[in-house]
Amino acid sequence: MLNALVAALLAVLPLAGPGTIYATDDPFTSERTQWFRDARFGMFIHFGGYSQLEGEYQRSDGSTCQDAEWIMNKCRIPTAEYERLVKSFNPAQFSAKAVVDTARAAGQKYIVITSKHHDGYAMWPTKVNKWSLRDHSAFDRNRDVLAELKAEADRQGIKFGLYYSTWDWHDPDARSAQNFARYKARMRAQLVELIDGYDPALLWFDGDWDTDNPPNPWTKQDGAELESFLRAKDPDLLINNRISKRAPGVKERRVVDGDFGTPEQTFPSAPIDGQLWESCMTIPSKWGYAKWDKNFKSATTLTRNLVDIASRSGNYLLNVGPDKFGRIPAPESDRLRAMGSWLARHGDAVHGSSVASWVADPAWGAVTRKDDKLYLSVYDWSNSLHLKVLEPFDVTSARVLGSSQHVAVVKAGDGYDVKPVGAKTNDVATVIELTVRGEQAAPPGTGEGLRAQYFPTNNWTGTPTTRTDPSLNFAWRFDGDNFSVRWTGFVQPRFSDTYTFLTVSDDIAKVWVDGKLVVDASQAHQVRVDKGTIALQAGKKHAIRVDYAERTGEAHLKLLWSSANQNQQVVPEEQLYTN
Ligand code: FHN
C-alpha cells in the first residue's frame, strides 16, 4: 500500500525544479551556472578572528604553538582565552577596493570570503550571537567588511560568494547531538542574514567530515534539507558539495551534493565525471595568515596550475589570507598580479575555455578549447610540439599570441606537429592559437524526453504509472524506498562520435543503447558513477532503455553523455524521443 502510494506520489510530483531537494537543473549547461563555468579563476579569502593571532600562540609555559585558521583547535586554546585574544582584532586597513582591485588585476572573476570559519566567528554583524567582528573586536562598529566587499565586487563586476563552516568550535550546541537542532536553527538564521544582507552568488560550505574533536553531528540529511531550503530562498545560488556530510572514514565527496566538487590543494588529471568542479589551493601552505608561512608557490606554478585546471574544465579558487590589519600580504598580491599580467595577453586560453577532447593531454603543456579555437599553452618550448589527435579536425590557421612568428602545422603520425619558428614569448607559457574546423553538429533535436514507467516495486513488476520525463536528472534523495523506473525511447546524437554514457545512481542502474548494455550498475550500491561507450551516428535515433531501481536509503539517477565533440552534460530533452 505504502509502495503504491510512493509510486503514485512520484508520478504526480512536479518535475525536478529549484526549491525542492530534487535536482534543480543541469549545472553543466544551465544559465544559473554559466558565469561560474566561464570564470575559471576566483579568489578565496580566509579572514577571521584567527588572523589576529598571526599564526602563533604563546602558551603560559613559554612554549610557542603555530597554526593559522586552525590555531584555536590545534593549539588547544581554551575558548575564553581565544575570545580574549580575538577581542583586540582590528583590521582597520581592510580595503574592499584594494582586494577587488587585486582580484581584477589577477584576472579573477569571483571572490569567496569566509563569513564564518570553524572557530564560529562571524565576519558580519550577525544578530544571532555576539561572537562577531562587530561585537567582539576592536574594529569600527560601523564598518561591515562583507558589505564593503560585496558593494565593491558589484561595482567592478566581480561575482561575490560566501564561505560558511557548518562545523563550529565555539557554539556549545554545535557539538551536542541533543542540542544540535538549536544550533541548526541558529545556522539557518545566519544563512538567511547572509542571503538577505549580501545576496551572494555562491555559498561555499565546509566542515563536512566526521570528527570527535569537537564532535560534528551534521548529517547528509541535514545537508539535503539545508540545500533544499537555500534553493527555495534563492534558486540562482551555486552551492558546493561540502554542504553534505561524509560518513566516518570516507575521504571522497559525492557528485550528487551541491553544484560542484571541491578538490583541495590538488586537482584531477581529467574532468570530473558527473559534476562541475573547482580546486581550491593556497599560495603558501596555510589558508589563514601566519607570519612564519613563507613557502610561496611561484607565479609560474600558479599560472600553469590555472591552465591545467581549465584544460580539465575546472575552476581554480586561489586563496589569500589577509593579515591582522586586513591587508593581503604582498607576496600573495604580487603573485596574483603576475598571473594577471600573463592572463591579460593569454586570457582566451583560460576564461570561457574548457577541455579539448579532440586531442590527448600533451607532456609539453596543456590544451584548452573555446569555440573554434584550440589554445596550446606551451610550458616546455624546447620540446618538439606534437598533438596526438583523438578526433579528426582541420587546422585552418595558427599563430602565437603576442608574436608575429610563423607557425607551421603539419600532419605527422597520430596527429599534428606544431612548429613555431621563433622564440617563446614568456617563461610561463607561450600560447599557440589554432583555428580549427571539426565535424559540423547536426541541428538540435526536437525531442520531448523518454517514456517513463514508475513501478511500485524495486524490480520492475506490478502496475506502473507512466509519464514522459524530459531528461533523467533525479535526486529523490530520502523520498521513497522500493520503487523502480524503466525509461524507453530513442536518443539522437548531434555528432557521429563514440559517446560515453554515464550514470550517477543509487541503488541500481542499467543503460542499453541499440540493444547493447552500455552501463551495468546492477549490484545495489550507494551513490556511484558508472559509464560505458558506444558509437552513435549524428541525427539518427538510437533505441535507448534505462532501468533504475531504488531499494532503501537515498535515491539518485542521472543520465549524462559526452564525446570528443560533446562536453559532458545531462542528455538533454531535445535529443530524447518517446518514439
Ligand atoms: O579546515 C578547512 C581549512 O581551514 C580551509 O578552510 C579549507 C579550504 O578548503 N577547508 C577545510 C579543510 O578541508
UniProtKB/TrEMBL annotation:
Matching SUPFAM superfamilies: (Trans)glycosidases (SSF51445), Anthrax protective antigen (SSF56988)
Sequence ranges assigned to domain PA14 in this UniProt record: 445-575
Tree of life domain: Bacteria
SMART domains in the record: Alpha_L_fucos, PA14
Hydrolase among keywords: yes
Swiss-Prot/TrEMBL keywords: Glycosidase, Hydrolase, Signal
Entry keyword Coiled coil: no
Signal peptide: 1-23
Protein EC: 3.2.1.51
Gene3D superfamilies: Glycosidases (3.20.20.80), Golgi alpha-mannosidase II (2.60.40.1180), Toxin - Anthrax Protective Antigen,domain 1 (3.90.182.10)
Uppermost EC category: hydrolase
Pfam families on file: Alpha_L_fucos, PA14
Family as reported in the entry's similarity comment: Belongs to the glycosyl hydrolase 29 family.
Function text: Alpha-L-fucosidase is responsible for hydrolyzing the alpha-1,6-linked fucose joined to the reducing-end N-acetylglucosamine of the carbohydrate moieties of glycoproteins.
Name of the protein: alpha-L-fucosidase
Biological source species: Lentzea miocenica
